[in-house]
Amino acid sequence: MARIKLATSAWESLFRAQVSVIRRLNTKARAYDLPMREYDVLYNLSRFPGGRLRLHELNAHILLDQSSLSRLVERMAADGLVARLPDPGDRRGTVVELTERGAAEQRRVGAQHVAAIGKFVGAALTADELRTLQRLCDKLRAAQDTIPD
After folding, report:
1. CB within 8 A of 113, min separation 6: which ones?
2. pLDDT averaged per 10 residues, the chain (length 149)
3. CATH number of the domain within which 70 lies
4. Residue 65 lies in a domain
């Protein structure tokens, strides 16, 4: 029981810290003229070869349900930030691809976003603490694939 309480307390601390930082980042993002959710899509696409992913693969990297992501991608396609293409391996599927405009926006906003993260996270922790935080978060994320429901 003590381990469950400790896990719950650690989770609450992690979650509250994330909420606090995300609120600050969202406030900064208003000046970027690109909502954080759209930036998140552009950032995730930029990390993969060819700047493209199947919609359901993109969904695995984003904190939105499938239908919300589909609507967001439709709006972003209408704005020219991404292209929606038929999946050549599955006619029912959709591939989302970063456009030149989307890549330019990701770079523009990304530079400002990185500076804000440096300010709000980097200024709060030492270099050793940042490395420890990264290692622990990576370990926690990786463990989710091995822990049964």
Report:
1. 25, 28, 29, 32, 39
2. 92 95 89 89 95 93 89 96 91 92 95 94 96 96 90
3. 1.10.10.10
4. yes
Residues 6+ apart with CB under 8 A from 145: none
How many structural domains does the chain have?
Answer: 1
Question: Does 97 fall in a domain?
Answer: yes
For residue 130 the two structure tokens come to 């940042």
Evaluate whether 101 touches 9 at the Cβ level (below 8 Å). no
In a domain, 148, yes or no: no
pLDDT value at residue 120? 95
Question: What strand order describes the sheet that includes 52-54?
Answer: 52-54, 90-98, 82-87
Q: Which pLDDT value is given to residue 88? A: 85
CB 38 within 8 A of CB 72: yes
Check residue 89 and give its pLDDT.
81
Q: Establish if 87 belongs to a structural domain.
A: yes
